[in-house]
Amino acid sequence: MCSACGCGTSTIEGHKHQSADHAHAHGHNHQINDDGQGQEHQHDHDHDHHLLGDHDHHHTENGSVHYGRGIAGVHVPGMSQERIIQVERRILSKNDAHAAENRRHFERNGIFALNFVSSPGSGKTSLLVRTIYDLKDRLAISVIEGDQQTSNDAARIRATGARAIQINTGKGCHLDAHMVGHAAEDLAPEAGSALFIENVGNLVCPAAFDLGEAHKVVVLSITEGEDKPLKYPDMFAAADLMILNKADLLPYLDFNVGLCIANALRVNPRLQTLTVSARTGEGMEAFYAWLEASAASRAARSKEA
């Protein structure tokens, strides 16, 4: 079990294989202050720490305590910053090898894979359901669903007529490339189709794990606050597209779309952004245009390679 986030073993619906146990820590590089205020400084402490290993943390002038400023970018009790980096590199190198294998398989078969990431409640599944219904005559789509428990989201996808497979991660808080590779093998997406991977609702850990996808798509809803990109910058830095969902609620909420997009672009200046409502369909055509153009561009690059 992961000492940092509690990741454990996984099961794939209808699949007897269990992925190997893996213990890992997650590092996150924060490049900007959370609140853009206060000058950081480091100082010695005169209180006792009873845990082994480094305990690098920083106090800012506003009184907050930051555990993400060490060389590993994360704190694990009893583990030095150097050891965290060693463990992280070992685990991520294994994941990256699986991801590269997935990517080769997807590109060889003309499968356009997207990794949808968000916090819980952003409306990811509703977005995928609407997209499948609207594009069913234009594009074949299959789905890999990730949740800690239940097959509820896979059932919603199957109700559209699309094929879906559920991965339950148990205590795990994200999908990894090994899980996705086995799920894709069982699902067998057809050549020239799109494969949607709906990751576990979590804006932290999925940022570090390449699944072999063509793009990460981060979904943020307007009920979550404009500062989410600043609070969880790694996810927005890793994504190529941000979909701002639930736009139909804008008349009822005090949410500043321009400020949210500006915050996201502070983290990732190359991030593309769309504002949509999966419930009403507002803005969805723009997403479909991005999807089809990106799939065509990816296919053209694969042919040239």
From TrEMBL:
Record's compositionally biased regions (Basic and acidic residues): 13-24, 38-61
Domain CobW/HypB/UreG nucleotide-binding, residue spans: 117-272
Pfam families the record matches: cobW (PF02492)
Record has Magnesium as a keyword: no
NCBIfam families in UniProt: hypB (TIGR00073), PRK10463.1 (NF007775)
Family named by the database record: Belongs to the SIMIBI class G3E GTPase family. HypB/HupM subfamily.
Name by which UniProt lists this protein: Hydrogenase maturation factor HypB
Taxonomic source organism: Sinorhizobium kostiense
